[in-house]
Amino acid sequence: MGCCAAIVAIAVSTPAFAASTLETVKARGKLICGVSLANPGFAAPNDKGRMEGFDADICRSIAAAVFGDGDKVDFVPTNINTRFQALQSGEIDVLSRQTTMTFSRDASLGLDFGPTVFYDGQGLMVAKSLNVASAKDLDGAAICTLPGTTTAQNVSDYFRSVGGKFELVVFESPDENRAAFYAGRCQAITSDRSDLASIRAVANNPDDYVVLPETISKEPLAPAVRQNDSNWRDIVSWSVWMLMAAEEKGITQANVDEKLKSDDPEIQRMLGASEELGKMLGIDNKWGYNVIKSVGNYGEVFERNIGEKTRLGLTRGPNAQWNAGGLVYAPPFR
User: Fold this and answer.
1) Element (H, E) at 275
2) pLDDT tens sequence across 24-55
3) Average pLDDT score over residue span 291-315
């Protein structure tokens, strides 16, 4: 009895000695966010060295929620093989890197995922000169890809289902992978469709390549945090949902000051004009205002970085708002 009581006491008291992620981030004075090495549209430095992209703006929204300043963030480039270790070890506070939420990753890596920020799916891209109209026509093809991802299993499952054969050619880095495909070492390259759009955009002649129509998997891309820190996960999750809800409510980076005067009770709560939602998270009550003022709403983030007027030219598709035929849906702020 006494032995068991001592064990319980130790188990209960131990967490008190570990600083939460929020405490660590606040003490440091900046967020450390893991992003891709260089993936135009999602995370890549511009000509002045400033990190830009969809995933980078997710990082900035979290920094804005915590500090009121979306620029209080350091970006750490991570590769496919080290991204999870960087988070597990505490090198980064959050991973925002076109990462698919899967059962095994969620259950076995000591990670928790936030909301899906981009609903994606795996595809295949080929040179137009091949005159291939469908992935089914790639029987026997060599296909370029990267290691440590879900793509190999997905493409194996697909070709098994259609009765085709293929040769998977694996390269260690995105640069090698792209270069091999451009040089014709593979008849096709496979990745998430958003990533294929990025690969196509940086080619010398983007019009020489076409993404085939088949989507062969579901790839819900989401930010990840370490397990067992529910407050930090809440901050990351609600920062993302703030972007989504702001678009639904018509709140933009340009009109957010005007919206502070809105008669809509939910907008008042979102922007900190009433109640104290921020206090529940351990951050400023105007955190939602700060998020939108820093990066805009979800639609603005999407269109600015990867939308139809950018080099990637992506349509909203499933990433449209729920009331416009898409899957983007934020829980209520109340």
Assistant:
1) none
2) 999 999 999 999 988 899 999 999 999 999 99
3) 97
Contacts of the segment 50-55: beta carbons below 8 A, 24+ positions apart: 51/75, 52/305, 53/305, 53/306, 54/117, 54/118, 54/301, 54/302, 54/305, 54/306, 55/96, 55/97, 55/98
Domains of the chain: 2-119+221-324 (3.40.190.10), 122-217 (3.40.190.10)
Strands 188-192 and 141-145: parallel
274 three-class SS: coil
Tokens read off for 334: 């109340």
Q: What is the pTM of this model?
A: 0.89
Distance CA 173, CA 21 (A): 30
pLDDT, tens only, 221-239: 999 999 999 999 999 999 9
163 φ, ψ (degrees, to nearest 5): 75, 25
Contact 32, 92 (CB under 8 A): yes
Element (H, E) at 334: none
Q: Provide the phi-psi class of 110: left if phi over 0, else alpha when psi is between -120 and 50, else beta.
A: left
